[in-house]
């Protein structure tokens, strides 16, 4: 299944009352809780999913947004109405950063029929489609979490890939170079990683670039389908956006879920700064 869905296609499905589960996963790093945005207005029928509570485990040695336990993720998705084999569409504010993490998590835990609304809530409203503040009636789903369906990296695997393959750092250039670190206690990057900010995956409207342009972008960084490729960020959220962009470009890639926030928990791990 293609990982993206455009606003007109989703509108048609909803008008035709096609069975699907619509998940709102709006989230803001260091900002107000996404539930506040949801309560001010959301797509009709959308169920709110909390990224920190439902799509990640408790912060700690595994990083700020480690993988949730399979049972916890299963329960959260069942509460949201997700069932085995059913179509799921996920969205966030605009650029798919949070939506990509939920897309990735559903795929990792064995749900293949999931798509991201390209352009998110912003694209939906700019097209003139309605929103609501009403809470939907949710029929609990029967989703069964089957972990391990997508490749992941641990710290050792990320370090090895930075030397033997291509490890992309999805954070901003300033954070990669160690000039600014607003969240984690140590600034810099994994030695050998290459900087590929996720802002370069989308246009000014928040929609993903065409596959051909994404392939060109990643090829300039050395990432092609002929090499082993992985991605990390601060805590494994924006790196999932990188994985989605790589998927669109036809490049398989593994996610280092713990990312920089997990890397720096061990002071013996090396840290690089600069370009």
UniProtKB/TrEMBL annotation:
<feature type="domain" description="Rhodanese">
    <location>
        <begin position="161"/>
        <end position="272"/>
    </location>
</feature>
<feature type="domain" description="Rhodanese">
    <location>
        <begin position="16"/>
        <end position="133"/>
    </location>
</feature>
<dbReference type="InterPro" id="IPR045078">
    <property type="entry name" value="TST/MPST-like"/>
</dbReference>
<dbReference type="Pfam" id="PF00581">
    <property type="entry name" value="Rhodanese"/>
</dbReference>
<dbReference type="InterPro" id="IPR001763">
    <property type="entry name" value="Rhodanese-like_dom"/>
</dbReference>
<keyword id="KW-0808">Transferase</keyword>
<dbReference type="InterPro" id="IPR001307">
    <property type="entry name" value="Thiosulphate_STrfase_CS"/>
</dbReference>
<protein>
    <submittedName>
        <fullName>Sulfurtransferase</fullName>
    </submittedName>
</protein>
<keyword id="KW-0677">Repeat</keyword>
<dbReference type="GO" id="GO:0004792">
    <property type="term" value="F:thiosulfate-cyanide sulfurtransferase activity"/>
</dbReference>
<dbReference type="InterPro" id="IPR036873">
    <property type="entry name" value="Rhodanese-like_dom_sf"/>
</dbReference>
């Amino acid at each position: 299944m293609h990982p993206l869905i455009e606003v007109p296609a989703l509108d048609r499905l909803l008008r035709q009352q096609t069975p699907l589960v619509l998940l709102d996963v709006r989230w803001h790093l260091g900002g107000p809780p996404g539930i506040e945005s949801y309560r001010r207005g959301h797509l009709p029928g959308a169920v709110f999913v909390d990224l920190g509570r439902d799509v990640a485990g408790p912060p700690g040695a595994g990083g700020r947004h480690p993988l949730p336990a399979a049972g916890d993720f299963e329960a959260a998705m069942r509460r949201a109405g997700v069932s085995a084999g059913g179509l799921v569409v996920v969205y966030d504010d605009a650029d798919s950063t949070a939506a990509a993490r939920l897309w990735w998590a559903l795929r990792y835990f064995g749900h293949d029929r999931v798509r991201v609304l390209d352009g998110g809530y912003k694209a939906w409203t700019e097209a003139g489609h309605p929103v609501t503040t009403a809470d939907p009636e949710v029929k609990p789903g029967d989703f069964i979490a089957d972990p391990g369906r997508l490749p992941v990296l641990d710290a050792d695997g990320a370090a090895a890939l930075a030397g033997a393959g291509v490890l992309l750092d999805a954070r901003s250039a300033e954070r990669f170079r160690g000039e600014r670190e607003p969240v984690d206690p140590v600034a810099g990057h994994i030695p050998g990683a290459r900087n590929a900010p996720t802002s370069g995956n989308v246009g000014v409207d928040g929609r993903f670039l065409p596959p051909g342009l994404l392939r060109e972008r990643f090829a300039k960084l050395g990432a092609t389908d002929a090499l082993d490729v992985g991605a990390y960020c601060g805590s494994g959220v924006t790196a999932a956006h990188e994985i989605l962009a790589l998927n669109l470009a036809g490049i398989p890639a593994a996610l280092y879920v713990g990312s920089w926030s997990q890397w720096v928990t061990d002071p013996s791990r090396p840290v690089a700064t600069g370009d």
